[in-house]
Design brief:
Four copies of one chain form a homotetramer. Chain A is α+β, with helices and mostly antiparallel strands. Helices cover 24% and strands 37% of the residues of chain A.
Amino acid sequence: MKEVVYTQRVEFGDCDPARIVWFPNFFRWIDAASRHFFIECGVPPWHQTEQAMGVIGTPVVDTHARFVKTATYGDVLQFHTSIAEWRGKSFVQRYRVMRGDDLIMECDEVRIFAGHRADAPGSIRALEIPASIRALCE
Amino acid sequence: MKEVVYTQRVEFGDCDPARIVWFPNFFRWIDAASRHFFIECGVPPWHQTEQAMGVIGTPVVDTHARFVKTATYGDVLQFHTSIAEWRGKSFVQRYRVMRGDDLIMECDEVRIFAGHRADAPGSIRALEIPASIRALCE
Amino acid sequence: MKEVVYTQRVEFGDCDPARIVWFPNFFRWIDAASRHFFIECGVPPWHQTEQAMGVIGTPVVDTHARFVKTATYGDVLQFHTSIAEWRGKSFVQRYRVMRGDDLIMECDEVRIFAGHRADAPGSIRALEIPASIRALCE
Amino acid sequence: MKEVVYTQRVEFGDCDPARIVWFPNFFRWIDAASRHFFIECGVPPWHQTEQAMGVIGTPVVDTHARFVKTATYGDVLQFHTSIAEWRGKSFVQRYRVMRGDDLIMECDEVRIFAGHRADAPGSIRALEIPASIRALCE
């Protein structure tokens, strides 16, 4: 199982008046870590996959996160990212966010490979997992 | 069980290149809906509760969200917010996000009432649920 | 000259560890105020103008902001928005951000009506000010 | 004049439905570049300067930005950061944002070293430029 580490430094503006990371920012970084995982595995950017196979991105359909320790600005976080499970039309992407040896948060997401719906412009639908992408990520 | 509705219009900049809401933005709005719930119930702002009872906010320790339908800019979303469960040192805050009759997403969070730790500046700890706050929210 | 007021409440997560609005958030709200101005004037959403006249949005090419007073969470801000000047291929959009009688910040932006460039996908170009849009906004 | 380069990769979620960076994100990165400049010059984090000399941060009082070329996700941007001018109670921080040889945007900010006001909790005031900080940054 491939694991890719995405590194993110926490900035002043990422923190709230309690001086800790405002939690929605973790999801910003997790989304970047998700994309970074595919890049590191050799998957092209979504505007290329859209033309090649209709994949416009990997939207999240379900996410479950647990916040273990707080982080603040100046901290450098490592997002250990992997795909824990492949399903028919979805997959589980897993993140363990570390600050050195400390576990800061962890998250399991269900994502799909999405394409535009021909019958409803602006809407999306789940595509079969593209075999070529899965092969790059395992 | 009190329910408070927080209304949010989706803006252009909330949407990503796939023209749908970039999911971390839902957590921004959920956090505002959480705060809005307490305001509507009559709980003072955190800088006042900090002085009165040491409560600096209600950080999330666990969140589970399910994304059902996409939303895009121009949509007006209603965040139906309630507290589904009170525990010893935490509570479950629940959100059902609607666009009219359509369920867009739903989310269950575990939050705590946090105070500063005297022994570790910058760190926080879970306080007992303040009875005066709970009384306002039920 | 039409003026439209966009109202925004400052949330906890909009503030930084100094307990004041983190300034990039003002630009998020200004962009929403800009769009809101066009909506209130009767201009259709950009995905409709894209099909009707090739306009995909009004990106900012120049912005100058002055921050006068700080704001914090719980504050309700009014973004007084107008178009101060129409030029050949650009216009000046002006914002005065008030908290009641207090001026919080003010901003002058130069924006264009942008379309896709046929010769360079992914790039944009400035279009002539659409007369139909200008007529709605004056 | 010291120049520090802050590097930032543009992520999918930083882009709007026009597939280009949503401009408020440039200010998020500029604020990080500003902080990064001080860190690289050896200035301690603000929670330390607050205790040592009352400096809680360097809020922006005026900003002027010019957007020259668009950027999109996958791009890597270099924020060339310097202090162009020192004044009595403020300074001009300058950013030239490059993508390789392409100028993407440039920005001149006026910032202050801020402290809490003793007479008005929650408000801030401009401090004299701390000589020890200036010496590190020149």
